[in-house]
Amino acid sequence: MDLSVCPRSYLITLFLFLFHSETESFPFVKMSSKRQAYRIWDIYQKTFYLRNNQLVAGYLQGSNTNLEEKIDLVSIEPDSVLLGIHDGRLGLACVKTGGTPKLQLEAVNITDLDKNQQESKRFTFIKSENDSICRFESAACPGWFLCTQTESDRPVGLSNTQANTITRFYFQRE
Ligand SMILES: *[C@@H]1O[C@H](CO)[C@@H](O)[C@H](O)[C@H]1NC(C)=O
Ligand SMILES: *[C@@H]1O[C@H](CO)[C@@H](O)[C@H](O)[C@H]1NC(C)=O
C-alpha cells in the first residue's frame, strides 16, 4: 500500500471543503452591493419627507415636492430588505425603547450592513406585496409594520395594529 495516498486525499478533501464554502458565501457577498432607490407613498397618497431630522408623511405641494424622500433598498433575501434614505446613509431601524418598538433613523451605510446579520437585524424588514400594495414588517420586532398616521405631517413609525395607522404603501422603483 502506498502511504502517500493518505495525505493527498486529505488535501483534496480540504481543498474541496474550502472551495465549497467559498462558493456558498459568494451569492451573499454579491447581493450586498445592490442598492436601489424607490418612491414610496401610503395608500392615501402621503409621501415621506424630513422635518427636524424626523421622517414624516404628508401631502407635499408646489416647490415642497422636492423635499420628498426616496427609500433606498438593499435586498438580503428576496423578501428581506434593508431600508434607508439619503443614498442609504441613514438606515430605518426598529429599536425597542421601554419595551415598545420605535422607528429610528441611524447614520449607517446600509450597503455595508448585510455582511453582519446580527448588526443588520434592526434595519431588516420583511417586504410583502399584494395587488401592488406593500407592507414592511420589522424583522427585529415581528408583528410591527412600517406605518404612517391618518393625519398628515405626522411621524412615520411602527404599528402592530391596523387601527388609526396606515401600513399599506405603494412602492415603485425609480
Ligand atoms: C457604502 O458602502 C458601499 C459598499 O461598501 C460603498 O461602495 C459606498 O461608497 C458607501 N457609501 C458611503 C456614502 O460611504
Ligand atoms: C390581496 O388583496 C385582495 C384584495 O385586493 C384580497 O382579496 C386578498 O385576500 C389579499 N391576499 C392576501 C394574501 O392578503
TrEMBL record:
Species annotation: Monodelphis domestica
InterPro entries given in the database record: IL-1_CS (IPR020877), IL-1_fam (IPR000975), IL-1RA/IL-36 (IPR003297), IL1/FGF (IPR008996)
Role: Anti-inflammatory antagonist of interleukin-1 family of proinflammatory cytokines such as interleukin-1beta/IL1B and interleukin-1alpha/IL1A. Protects from immune dysregulation and uncontrolled systemic inflammation triggered by IL1 for a range of innate stimulatory agents such as pathogens.
One GO cellular component term noted in the UniProt record for this chain: extracellular space
Gene Ontology terms: biological process: immune response; inflammatory response; insulin secretion; lipid metabolic process; negative regulation of heterotypic cell-cell adhesion; negative regulation of interleukin-1-mediated signaling pathway; response to glucocorticoid
Highest taxon above the source species: Eukaryota
Pfam families, alphabetized: IL1
Gene: IL1RN
Protein name per the record: Interleukin-1
Keyword Signal: yes
Gene3D superfamilies: 2.80.10.50
